[in-house]
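pls read this stuff:
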Amino acid sequence: MSFGRKVTMRRRILSSIWAFIVNFVLWIVIPYYVGTLLVGRVPDSALTIPSFVYEFGALFIILEVGAAFFQGKAISVPFVSGAALLSVVYLWLVTNGGNLTVTTSGIDITLGFQLLLYVLVLPLIWSAMKAPLSYLVWRRSMGAPVPPTAVPTVSS
């Protein structure tokens, strides 16, 4: 994140449009089609529920478009952190907490990967914490006094 830099309104709008298109495809179109493929095989996954895909997709789009529009400003911090935390919740719900049950030909196979899920979630949690921390560091650097220059003094 780069705070304090000047971003033109044209760039903000273009970034927001691009973020909308990319996030619409990533969070609504692809999960919807993956969910339709998983309906018979993985009934426990939240991706098989279209309203889940639409609701989370809309939240992701709002947060990512907001982050793109307000880039370089303090207001972007909640959008970035919110998107990271929403990713954690989404990943947790889609994988059913790290326990997926696959049903095929009347046979149920349960896959348990909680530890792997924790490893996948940790960077997302760090990303949620990094946005406000980087903003605080930037604010502190802007308000800190300038160190004295190393100008030799002449003493008499």
The mean pLDDT is 88. The first strand starts at residue 99 and ends at 104. The radius of gyration is 22 Å. DSSP finds four helices and two strands in the chain.
